[in-house]
Structures are given as structure tokens and as C-alpha cells.
Amino acid sequence: MNENSLKKKLSKLNIGGLRYFDSIGSTNDEALAWATDNARDLSIVIADEQTQGRGRLNRKWFTPQGSALAFSLILRPSASLRPHLSRTVGLAALSIAESCRMLGLAPQIKWPNDILLNGKKTAGILIETVWSGEHVDSVVVGMGINIQSDSVPPEEFLQFPATSLEDEIKKETPAREDILYNILSSFINWRARLDTNELMNAWEEILAFRGEQVQVSGGSEIVATGKLLGLESDGSLCLLDANDNSITVRFGDVSLRPAA
Ligand code: BT5
Fold first, then answer.
1. Is 10 in the same domain as 70?
2. Residue among 27, 61, 140 to mutate when testing ligand 1 (max atoms within 8 A of CB)
3. d(CA 122, ligand 1 centre) in Å
4. What is the three-class DSSP state of 59?
5. Are residues 107 and 221 in the same domain?
């Protein structure tokens, strides 16, 4: 993977600009800086390796050299999409999920930001917003996808089991540029439908643990327990508690687990 091969591969997509790094701290940091420096809509920062890759709440994201996809998209939302920005994490998750399906896999989305293959995390999403006063100026959508086996962190690094596309396909994995192309074309197609029920249905359909008892925790605290019913129209999670009351879990730094 290099800047020329990427530019060539992505030339048919209407991306805003591209910055490639052999190694970087975090593509999200570079994208946030570029966003405040007038990056165009759908500009992309991509790196072969991240040395300070970030998850939510400054957890670490592991991106060793030559084996994963790590990139950040800069979005400059149009007025018509602004009311639906809380769906962006679903849009990103669906795009990664579709690229997995094209490889014959059966991805699930562990709300809010993980993509699972066979119950193991293969990708994560980190969304950060640049504000201008009370308005969203731009949104940075960071995506990390484990492609080769080498990209899977050692077990002691993990709170949840992890896998890679290579481990799940069990045959030769396509080039990273090809997988990136599929994710971005899917992202561009779904973004045009961000305001539709079709997007919400597609997202809900592949939610992990649907119909099952789950626990939602924020840090060390359990914030909700119940049966996972689905999504609200803003992408919040809908549960049913033991007394048949519905509970809405809004975004925030929460993690989902099957209830013990
Ligand atoms: C995430 O956070 O899953 C968001 C990950 C976003 C990474 C992308 S890469 C491009 C862009 N630039 C960045 O700096 N970040 C974004 P969270 O839900 O908080 O999960 C983090 C947890 O996942 C860590 O605490 C580890 O336990 C685990 N983890 C770290 N690296 C992993 C990997 N490669 N595969 C699977 N799990 C991993």
C-alpha cells in the first residue's frame, strides 16, 4: 500500500483528498487537524501503521505495520444530513459490514461501534466532532479493520475476543486497497440515504445479541440490563427490562455484553 496505489484505486470514487502515511500516531488526530484546516468533504487520512492509535476514552487501538486498515474520513455534513448525524456510527459500521459480506462472511454490529465476525471483534469505529460554536463543522470517522492475522492484538491487550478477516476467510485475503474501496463505496452509497428507514433497518438487522439479554456498562458501572430489542430512529439502543419497561440507551462511552 502506498500513496500512488491508493490514489489510483480510489480514483473512481468522489473523495475530497488523500493523505497517506507509512507510520503515524493516529489518523484521527491528523484528520482533526486537517478538518480545522479546510479539508474537503470526504477527505481521507490513511496509514500503514499507527503508533498511538486510539479507541474511545483514549483506550489504545493496535495497528501494526503492513497488516490492517486504519483510516479516518472527514465529513462536512450538508444541511439535510445534519439532523441525522447521530446515525454516522451505524453508517460506518454498515459499510464495513457490507465489505465483509462481499467476502462471504456474516458480520454483526455490536452496538455502538464494533464489527464482529463469529462473535469476535474485527473492526472498531471512533467518531469525533469538530464544533464551530453550536454547529457541527465536521465529523471525523476513524475506522480500524484487522485484515491479516498479524493485526490481532495479543490476548492480554483485549477485553473482548478479536479476530481478523484472514482468520475468518481461511483463504487468501484480498489486498487492503480493494477492501478499502469496497468500504468507501458502500459508505458513499449509504450516506446518501442517511435519513432513510432503509438504513435503520439494515443496521438493526445485523445487530449482535438481538432478542438476547444484555448488560450495558459505562466504565465499571452497569447502566442498563435487559433484552435487546433494536434501535431508536436516532440510533440509540432500545432494551426491555425485567418489568417490561422499555429503556433507551443513548450514545456515550458504553459497552455491550451478553448478560451473565
Ligand atoms: C474502538 O474503540 O473500537 C475504536 C477503534 C478505532 C480505531 C481507528 S483506526 C483509525 C482511527 N485512528 C485512530 O486513532 N483510531 C481510529 P473501543 O470500543 O474503545 O475499543 C478499544 C478496545 O479494543 C481496546 O481497549 C482493546 O481492548 C481493543 N482493541 C485494540 N486494538 C484492537 C484491534 N486491532 N482489534 C481488536 N480489538 C482491539
1. yes
2. 61
3. 10
4. coil
5. no
* CA–CA separation, 90 and 98 (whole Å): 12
pLDDT digits (tens, 9 = 90+) for 134-165: 889 999 999 999 999 999 999 999 989 999 99
Pairing label, strands 213-218, 237-240:
unpaired
Q: What is the domain-level CATH number for residue 11?
A: 3.30.930.10
Residue 241, domain extent = 213-258
Atom number in ligand 1 closest to CA 162: 36
User: Domain tally for the chain?
Assistant: 2
Q: Is the pTM of this model over 0.85?
A: yes
Distance 245 CA to ligand 1 centre (A): 33
pLDDT tens digit string along 69-91? 999 999 999 988 899 999 999 99
- Shared-domain flag, residues 9 and 85: yes
* Whole-angstrom distance, CA of residue 241 vs CA of residue 174: 43
Q: What are phi and psi of 42, to 5 degrees?
A: 65, 30
Atom of ligand 1 nearest to the CA of 157: 27
Distance 153 CA to ligand 1 centre (A): 10
